[in-house]
Amino acid sequence: MKNLNGRCVLLGITGGIAAYKMANVASALHKAGAKVHVIMTENATKFITPLTFETLTGSKCMVDTFDRDFQFDVRHISVAKEADVILVAPATADIIAKMAHGIADDMLTTVVLAARCPKYVSPSMNTAMLENPITQDNISLLRKYGFTIIDSASGYLACGDTGSGKLPEPEVLCRWIEHEIAYPDKPLKGKKVVVTAGPTQEALDPVRYITNHSTGKMGYAIAREAMLRGADVTLVSGKVALEPVPFVRMRGITSAADMFDVIREELPDTDILIKSAAVADYRPAVVADHKIKKGMADDSSPIVQSGDNSMSIPLVRTQDILGWVAENHHPGLFVCGFSMETENMLANSSKKLVKKKLDMIVANSLRTAGAGFGTDTNVVTIITKEGAQELPIMSKDEVAAKILDKIESMEEEK
Prior knowledge:
Blueprint: E1 8-13, H1 22-31, E2 35-40, H2 50-57, H3 75-82, E3 85-91, H4 93-100, H5 107-114, E4 119-123, H6 127-131, H7 133-144, E5 148-149, E6 153-156, E7 162-166, H8 170-181, E8 192-197, E9 202-203, E10 209-210, H9 217-228, E11 232-237, E12 249-252, H10 256-266, E13 272-275, E14 282-284, E15 304-305, E16 311-312, E17 315-317, H11 321-328, E18 334-341, H12 345-355, E19 360-365, E20 377-378, E21 381-384, E22 387-390, E23 394-395, H13 396-413
Helix pairs in contact: 1-2, 1-8, 3-5, 4-7, 9-13
């Protein structure tokens, strides 16, 4: 999770069996540096003790509005003012009804009514209770009043029923909080950012293809960082073994031709294009309709067999996507390319910067320890027309932040 130092999160926990999951939420937020206040309803304390949350957060858990430990502080007001975001989870039908109608009869509902910060509510209850028209009307009222509803998950419920009403997993709830407060000023709000990631696969036949070792980790980290900064992000991804980035529009592709088609479609209203994908430079000149059997190459096969039993695969160039972008993009588009080299990294990457008319290029070398494909770290040099900035080894999340910092500063200079 992003560093949340200086942020204050208020967790409102009500009397549902899923209250135990909130211990992990509180712990994760505290470890990320956030100041975490926990308010529990009286019923919630029947499922998990306040001491658990006090141990995990280092702050006193609030239950009683008139707790004498807070006698010199109008606590429900001071806490409401301090919070950067409120998450009520699990949110029972009762608490949803109270919040929707402005009832403030305990510490949690009083604080929620007094707070001006963003408020998130994650309903958790039996499916029939959740789907009851009264509950649905109350949820709609909360939306009308500016609350954000985190939809329930579906599955096997504690009562034995199967359906909607499960509290989402702790990591899902944490993502919503992180999305809200990681960058309060949302420096990229209003910007459309398109990021490409992962490898392309160029088919030889229905079974085989030409590809590379890209895992997509760098591109996914960039998409996530841009999303946290408030951008409207589209991630154009080759086939990778990574979870989709939350709050990001995902567009899957297979080949370089697929990626070109998507970029051409997305480009007109894009503000920032970051091409971190490892796009194949070549593809087989011919693609077989059926699996090529061993020793059965013929005139229709992509494989050319010589008399000495050696074989070759004729290749042709794939679409030069960055080259096309250089000639066809609209004024004001910021384009950042990537360069993976095994020799002469600075020279080769600088040439690419000029040739492709890029605003910036991020270069790294496969020969450098901690860089390259499949790692969780990277060692990059950010190159612009003004010069090169070499960064030390760091996580790909940290590299993504440095890249976006540089793009933001260059955009401001414009």
